[in-house]
Amino acid sequence: MKSHYNLILLHYLIVFSLMLFPPALSYSQPPENETPEQVIHELQATLIQVMQKGAELGYQGRFDLLAPVVQRSHDLPAIIKAVLGTHWNKLTEEQHQAITEMFSKLSIATYAERFNQYDQERFEFIEKRTLPKDQVLVRSQLMQADGKAINFDYVMRQGSNQNWKIINILADGVSDLALKRAEYSAIIHRDGFSALLSQLEQKIIQAEQHN
Predict the structure, then answer these.
(1) Which of 48, 81, 158, 172 is the most exposed place for a label (fewest CB within 10 A)?
(2) How far apart are CA 53 and CA 46, in angstroms?
(3) Model pLDDT for residues 145-171, shown as the tens digit of each residue
């Protein structure tokens, strides 16, 4: 009888502890069957959130909040591979890993640095277009307090897990991928791959200094 009572007590203790401390949800996994529009909405909603709490969070707080969302919404390994172009094939696996990690950190750091204060900005969805090669374009605008708008066009495609991810962003028609390709290629040609890594690291340090 005592043993049976102990088992019942143990059962209720386990149930009670689960009620108090539910299993942690993993935010690294995106919801299934997210549409391209939903992916962009989540990213932009997070950007507005970090802007609204910019001073309170500080740089590191903004970085930590943005990191999982940027990693979910951007195909960062594919982007840096496209940016490097033919240079990618000349690198070792260790160099692939190093540049991918550095580029990913810089991408998040750039968001954390630039979206640091709020002045009634809001994002507005414009349209979604189908592009060749199974890609889509999600067009939106960042409306500012003075009525001016910044156009953000997101080129997206489905990854191996069928989740939609950003592979390029055009701000007012200017391709971020094209800008980086020209910049990174020039550095590699002039000073080599190690110099590119050093410059990306320096950019991260500079971003961290903007609280």
Answers:
(1) 172
(2) 11
(3) 999 999 999 999 998 788 999 999 999
